[in-house]
Task: structure prediction
Amino acid sequence: MILSVDIGSAFVDLVLWDGQAARVAKVPGAADPHDALVTGMDLLGISPVDVDELRLASTRPLNALLARRPARVALVTTQGFTDTLALGRQNRVALYDPVAASPAPSFLVAPDAIYGLPGRLDAAGTELGPIDHAALDAIVAQLRATGAEAVAVCLLFAHVSPAHERIVADRLRDALPGVAISLSHDVDPAPREYERTVSTVLDAWLKAVVAPDLARVSARLAASGFTGRVLFADNRGTLCNEASALARPARVLAGGPAAAGVAAAAVAGGEALVFDTGSVSTDLALVGADGPRMVDSAQFAGVLLRQELADMASVALGASQGLARRGDDIVLAADGPARVEDALSVLGRLPIPTGGAADRIALLAPGADLRCTAAKAIAAVEVALAAELTSFAARRNVDPTRAALVAMGGLGPLLAAGVAVAMGAGRVLLPAAPAVGGAIGIALSRGRTEAQIALDCALPDIDPAQLATWIDGLRADLGPDLAEGPGGDPTCVVILSARRQMHPVRLALPGLPRTGAEIAEALIEHYRARFGVGLPGAGHLHALALMRDDAGDGCLPVPTVTATGGSAGTMAETPAGHVWVPPGWHLAPQGAGLVLEPVTEPKDASR
Amino acid sequence: MTDLRILQMRLDGLAETMQQTLFHTAVSPVVREGADCSCALFTPDGELLALSEAIPLLLGALPGAVSAILAAYPVSCMRAGDIFLFNDPFSGGTHLPDIALVQPVFAGDRPVALTASLLHHQDVGGARPGSVPPDATEIYQEGLRIPAIRAGTSEGFLPEIAGMIRLASRVPDIVMADLEAQLAASRNACGGIVRICGDLGTDAFLAATAACLARTEAEVLDRLAALPSGPFDGRDALDPVPGLGPCEVQVRLGFAGGRLAADFTGSAPQVAAPVNCARSGPLSAVLYALLTLVGDDVFRNGGLLRCIDLTLPEASIVNASPPAAVNARTNMVRCICSAVLRAVSQAAPARMPAANSGMSFVIAFSGRYPDGQPFLSTEIIAGGAGGGPDRDGAPGISTDVGNARNMPAEALEAVAPIRVVSAGIRRGSGGEGRFRGGDGIIRVYEALADGISVSVRGDRFTQVPDGAHGGGAPRPAAVTMLRADGTREDLPARSAPRLDRGDRLVIESCGGAGYRTPPG
Result:
């Protein structure tokens, strides 16, 4: 049995796949996600012993990051560069705001927890000055005295030679047992000291703040007899093993939103715009038929993620969003007296009414008709969501009125029709159990195993024998089952640039390369196809990876569509979650999910 | 969400995609690290349709470049795939390293838009490597001057045009690779515009783009009409240099009738130094100021430009005539922007912080490695932001018309025999205040080879901005040479020192001004 679990801030969503059928559960879990997980397994009639594979995503790390939760994280960097994080790239967030603000995530490390260490490498990785051990000892004493929970180490040119970072790491591990150490050459072995510093301090921050929580879920299940394997949903919409998730928590930071994209792709079968509205936030993504679109780096939750990830965004708009009155209008306001869920409750769009909802909505417009006030509030929410979706799509040159719209999450299906009207979309698609859309996405995701080595080599200089050795080494890292799987060779992915210092791209090669020239051909073709120009250099290889995705078994682990109700002006019930069907609309099964559309609109199979 | 807003967002997104394409395909460090480039889309008539989120310093240049090209090649005689080049400061450009590439976009056989990009090229000839000679007195010392020319097709540059550019440049391969990057950016945007025309229909696209411009114009007129009509005066000046005169900028802003009138009468005559700027400079500064005034929900297109009236004295430092030298225009545009923002502060006092540093350093290193291989790298170093109105100013951050990114030590050291000894915040350099001015930056470089030429262009070495509402002034910028033999030289704002092995160059940028009297 495969159990997919999406831990949100207020609910824990479960999808159980036994190879034949899928069953779902959604359990309140604000206090303790583990208790909610156990409750959910009871509801599904299974115990931890029955589970062969546990698949996890948790929004809690992302919420902690958005809340800027403080942590005692320290940074050891090259002397003379202790301001690298604060200065960022000297650019600003909003070009035309007269008050300039930096996008640098300085909150990750307190300024007095950044230490400059003498010792220097040059651009070729050659030592110019040795690590100053006395200075390192003094730093260690400070780290002890201040009780650092995690230490990030980012030294200049560590991506070329990790020698100095290894010396520092050995000393820190000896002196500070139990403290998480993040090394920049491990976390993000690529040039540009600011970007690598951000990756490294984010890794340290996540290890200090949230990794223990992540590890606890499977540990507590194991104590109840669970012996299966544990996978995590990652930022790409694939699954990675628990060890790599805990080693690089930033790679699973947005696992839930990426999985929602996987679910949306399965429902839409083509280009689609998805929104997943939950208790505190809405996640947006644009997907193609194969799953989420990928980008090589992105600013996410205010932090630069320099890694391959789904093209998505997260905005603070969910059930707990505050509402306030401005003149005759109801607007979104963090400190408002009522919440979005109150307005839904007053309108009868929540299965369980929220206590005190009517009183709080009344505060918005004393004396006015409650339903009228609530309807105004929900209209404002729907317009705000439509604006976010429109902006997200339009900036990617996708006409939001033409792309398929997919809604999910606890609130998405309750707002879907209004959002579609506000953005000019004709209809909305929903997963079969829309309130657990993220968990369905996790159930649909494929496991990916990969092995990677960092390199720094001009393509014309690659010796075929050396290349074969690297690939053999990666095959060994993958293990015999994956290195020689039934589908032929594993996929080879290269990270490379036209010239050594240019920004790299990630390319999947058509087969295992035998020469540097074969790799160059792929890069030349990429430049031709994407940019229409020749390659402005001879090509430079930064990393080589082999990966293999688990083979799917051809079945869709989604529940059979059994939506009930759904006549106009009512709430339809699905296996997980309700759908608001406004007057003049109807809800019907379609493919692996549901479609919500106006009754009068003629059906158009192309949309 | 209206259809017009969706269209404007798609166009903005395409301009931004062009910018990202340059970032990924440009070879020279000042573009791929410093982001010294800008992209835009225009109507076939040459009105601005959309802008990338780039350097506002270049905002005013693309409309000028497109106008110059359309004057020479009316759109009716353009063919699909044509590409045009241009860099002449005196008919719309900035300075000679900034080459604009413009390409018409056709839907079927109808021209529907123009794409344009501007990129700071590493070297287009002239007296010194980098084409930014701090000692230039005439444009003839600054490199290759390119009028509006048809330069080839999207398949490639005409061999004779490429040959001419190659012969003029010290780094021909890099310049041609960066021009190819501009070509790549254009091709991407062309495809995107064709997709929109396919979605909407060509007639509807053309009508909707016209409506976007009209909507911006109407909104801007409306918002400016709500401001006090003025006039509001602002002035600022570059550091005085013996023999050059005062280099003072004067501006009078008015908002009568909902239009932004900026009259620079009284600004100093042009000087025999490279600090002059052409019309694109004040246009960039005034357009930037207008964008900060109207708010972020107004479409950023040519509707804004329709509301601007510029009055520029001929042959002045803000509107130079041939043969003025203009390569060090950056700090003149900063100075113009400071004067304009001072006037804006009187019109909209609640929103405006104290003055920012009003300067940035542009530094170019060039020479040869001991094995004879040439190198050339340009970088831009910001000062501090002004304090207020509700917080301390940010340290070391690009402000107003600047938005260049800094040069990572790991990027510079990989392409030049130079060590970055330190790169940090210049603490205490921001002005005192209830809200402190942001500190400037201090960077220390050490030469690893003999004979490295440096071009240093800065400002605010003597004249610093005043604080606002009782806040303090920042510390001025400085450049110091620490020779390997222990001697020390203080260098002026614009200099061309030579570094030998072991020499250290210390660059200190100016902080931002403070806001209100400090507590206690």
